[in-house]
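Training component of the fellowship. As part of building independent skills, the fellow (R.M.) carried out the full modelling exercise for a liganded target. The chosen ligand was coenzyme A. The inputs are recorded below so that the supervisory panel can assess the work.
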Amino acid sequence: MIRGAVLEDLDRLVDLESRVFGDQAWSRQELRFELSALSRIYLVWEDQDAILGYGGYWSGERDAELMTIGVLPEARHRGIAGSLLARIITGADRKGLQRMNLKVRVDNPAAIDLYEKFGFSQTGLCKGYYQPEDVDAWAMTRPLSSVGPGPVGFVSNKLSEGQERIIDHE
Ligand SMILES: CC(C)(COP(=O)(O)OP(=O)(O)OC[C@H]1O[C@@H](n2cnc3c(N)ncnc32)[C@H](O)[C@@H]1OP(=O)(O)O)[C@@H](O)C(=O)NCCC(=O)NCCS
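Fellow's submitted model of the complex:
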């Protein structure tokens, strides 16, 4: 089930961040800020009591910025990131935002593939964006409003029946 993240999820998201991003994980303080800031909207994918994935965006006046998306290693390839991203795009679209932007490491083909599948295209290269590793990032963007959230039937193709319950976070 997808639902809006709340501050009570903090402990579980700290754990998930470290399992997904290792030494690049957000700290507890950074996560607390992300969950509390009015301009941020985060969603979690929860199965019983376990949070298997999460993602969120920053909402500006016209543009949204995808902040992060991550799924536990043992829960990957089940369509969880795709479902979260579809809901994130739909939510930003409903707010009347016009574009969603993001940055992604050039050495992350899985994420680049995911974003391209959801209509993002590369707009430029940000040299040395990720420090201290000095890894470049692709800047990617996707129009909102005119285009649907993602591949049609994406959720139902990948998830079992009981997992298709999705509630709107707004
Ligand atoms: C990238 C990530 C979020 C994908 O999560 P997921 O739940 O496994 O993704 P899904 O099952 O929803 O897959 C959706 C699409 O993403 C792409 N994708 C996912 N994993 C992929 C991989 N290992 N290689 C290539 N493409 C991949 C594919 O296009 C896939 O569609 P398909 O299955 O029809 O080919 C996950 O691998 C992850 O958490 N990685 C570490 C954190 C990270 O890099 N986050 C993104 C940057 S912040």
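The panel noted the following from the submitted structure. The longest helix spans residues 80-94. The chain is about 30% helix and 35% strand.
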